[in-house]
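Why does this matter for the project? Reviewers at the last site visit asked to see concrete outputs rather than summary tables. In response, this paragraph embeds two records directly. Each consists of the residue sequence and, immediately after it, the corresponding structure tokens. Nothing has been edited or filtered.
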Amino acid sequence: MPFLPVWDLNPLKRVRFQYVTASLIAINTAVYFLLQSDLVFHVPPGFTQGLALLPRYVLPLQALLQHIPRLYRLVTYMFLHANVLHLLFNMIFLFVFGDNVEDAMGHARFILFYSICGVAAGLVHCALTGAPDLPLIGASGAVSGVIGAYLLLHPNIRVWVLVPLPKLPVVPLRFSAALVIGVWIFYQFGSAMLLPSTDTAWWAHVGGFLTGAFLVILMRRRGVPLFDAATGI
């Protein structure tokens, strides 16, 4: 990615605290360090493989019917990560954008929203991947749904991002959420089209993003506007 968002200066308006967002970050972090990193527990080598999503279990329809008992993986894959950087980047994006989406929906609806986005992202990946035997793990699809919802809710909010510049250290700059997220989704879609053979699940990101952008229209609380005119500080 050409940048990393770190802060959005967008205060909560309807909930006191983003309990679901914080819990998701805590759960993902705990799963990785307790069960995947070997720093605390030495779990069997097949632990991640057993909870990851395998596209060949989902599509075509015949495979889906044959592997119904394994469809729990459409949920469990969201809480696994390949390494610390994979976890860190997903959790930073969730930290920056998740609280305000949770604020717009309420805690219970946000849990449902996040889960649906993750499942939809997994299904899109399974439909379009060229590597049906490569396991899919990571919260990226669900977090992409959060990013899509944020774009429709707060496109004008200013977001601080870290931008690496040639021959200079990483520089913090501030842009509108519409610009930051627009560049992000363009990067995801372009990578999905041009780099289909990589290990990154680009189509899961695109699928999650589109799902989140659609669902926020239906799942936001009554009275919560789309395309909020506020610009932040």
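We now turn to the second protein, recorded in exactly the same manner.
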Amino acid sequence: MRTADFDYPLPDELIAQHPAGRRDASRLMVVNRQAWEVAHQTFQDLPTRLRAGDLLVFNNSKVIPARLRGRNPHSGGRFEILLVEEVAPNDWWAMLKPGRRARPGTEITLLDHAGAATAVSARVVEVNAEGHRRLQFCGTPELLNELTNLGETPLPPYIRRVAGSDLREDDNRYQTVYAQPPGSLAAPTAGLHFTPELLSTLAARGVETAFVTLHVGLGTFAPVKAEALAGHVMHEERYEVSAAAAALIQAARAESRRVIAVGTTTLRVLESVAAANEGQVTAGPGRTRIFIHPPARFRVVDALLTNFHLPCSTLLMLVSAFAAPGEVRGRELILRAYAEAVRERYRFFSYGDAMFIA
């Protein structure tokens, strides 16, 4: 299949710039894979689509304030730093702008939110084939502990903020209510719609929950530059499945209860683990480059809760595959649903509305 097969028109005004007033006040499009039917509800209606014994699996990774500002203490040149992955304490791979001025040996003094120099600094020690810089930090025992004072929430480029604007709303809302281990560059956005009250309602109805971790990195959102899907290679991302989560998932499958992935990142964890373990979901850490697109089949996930994704993105390709496992016609169903979402003025992307595919 071609990347261009997953393009669709989207008016710019439908790209959500701010979250809904309440997390669960967003809209919910329900896609019936068997009947090829679409229904319109609100996210607060989600419990009506679930049943006792369903297992909701969430990605509990926490977004870190990964965007930093720095200055070369010798030349005065400014840098924007996006942390990509921690190698070890105070040792990170990062993307730097402008990269041409960040050669090995370059020193960078980090700036606080007011633009003042701090005691924390970085030195470029390596450049990889992708142009990412390996940075070694000093002036702090642990950079992660300084990010609240130094970093900014790394909002996607389609969410626009005026320089100097108050980002406190984003610090709160671009994070799930159950986020725990820090490490993501972007939020697992399907989970942004859940509130503690909604989770309590689901538990009271007999819906079970489990949590896995995938630290969302460049792999999830990197654009597809190849003309044919076969030419695209995903960036590697880290995941962890606890023994408790693995046991809950395996029990649900053994009892023919639905396993419902909250978000494409959760689905990628479950299907990656199953692919590596003869269909079983086992505990442990791992790394994945899985690229799911039509006509993929699925070993674990029975239903998917997700947001609306960018044209020609790997996430749209994944959703299209899930709409018709083992076939290519799911693309037609999803693009038809997206066209209806545009007509009905749904809100798109990270802060937008949700879709439930079952």
